[in-house]
Amino acid sequence: MKNKLKILSFTFLFLIVSACSSVKFKDTKTVSSKLKWSERMALTLMENHPQSYMTDNVKEPKWDYVHGLVLTGFEKLYQKTDNINYFNYVKSYADSTINPDGIIPSYDASKYNIDMIEAGNILFLLYDKTKEAKYLTAMQTLRKQLDTQPRTSEGGFWHKKTYPNQMWLDGLYMGEAFYSHYTSKFENGKKLDDVAKQFEIIQKHLVDPKTGLLYHGWDESKKMAWANKTTGTSPNFWSRSLGWYAMALVDVLDNFPEKHPKRTELISYLNQLAPALAKVQDKSGMWFQVTDQGNREGNYLEASGTAMFAYAFAKGANKNYLPKSYKILAEKAFDGMTRDLVKVDENGLVTITQACAVAGLGGTPYRDGSYEYYVNERKQDNDPKATGPFILAALELNK
Questions:
Q1: Which long-range contacts (CB under 8 A, 24 or more apart) does 321-324 make?
Q2: In the prediction, which pLDDT does 319 show?
Q3: CATH number, domain 32-397
Q4: 95, 115, 170, 292: which is the annotated catalytic residue?
Q5: Fewer CB within 10 Å: C terminus or N terminus of the chain?
């Protein structure tokens, strides 16, 4: 009798395990190859990260720029398709990171980290659609940081309090897209000159006169070991930092009225950068991790920078900031990515490979900005800094 019970128990357990396995398999969503790349990528992220705060492989909700970047893609996708699921995915992130009273528990204004401003970009649409006061309160909190953000002697925002006297290209996307949108929407554009000033300072100090490319960072004090003792610039060109800057220009321009005196100036910066980038675009259509050293050992074709340039070129051409020829270059970049860097599994889920996970300057352990540093930083499949711009580029290209 005991043996029969054991057999029955084992059989019952086996059936349960089998059923659970079967349900899990059936529950795995398939993504149709007939959809455009923007939706294929978005649906992949929703399948792999059921909660939108998980998109950077984190277990607890936190306020961070990478989530803001990806969800900006979802916001634009919602506006394009009117699919409420994309809107709800954006909203669920905001609701998991912002309290009902508008406080953002994981945000610390005293750190003066300009990266933390970026996720505020998703709050404009949420507030417009829902009129929930907490979204406005959160935006006001982020805006207040910029009032007291430490600045260089010429008025450029420090990247972080822990990086005194430094401006990084990354920071122009992190701060100015939100800053320009907020001041144009709620302040009658009174701070647009200050937004433009940030770009003016970058152009003055970070452009390399030989190549037209911009260095990753600049230390006004010239005290950092990575800083050139004459110019204060970091030693190399990093594609993602240039991508941040290019995206910042095309997104900030959305908030400058046609007759604003600084608008032409910003467009001119984009038209100086674009040909410099076009000169170092690889025959594959993509760009290398260290932008101008494609043939050097260890360098590789990098996904996030390529997606960012594709987006900036396509949007720039669509908005008539750039000649139409740049849309062709954007097409070439996007096609190169989908051909060589994108993998699609049996369920149609999309994986972007060859994405640099993170890179910076200074800090602990110390990052010296050398060629060897950039090419040896770790890579991460479907890194948010690649998936977000990939969705944005796909939308601009109608891919």
A1: 321/249, 321/250, 321/253, 321/267, 321/270, 321/271, 322/270, 322/271, 322/274
A2: 98
A3: 1.50.10.10
A4: 170
A5: N
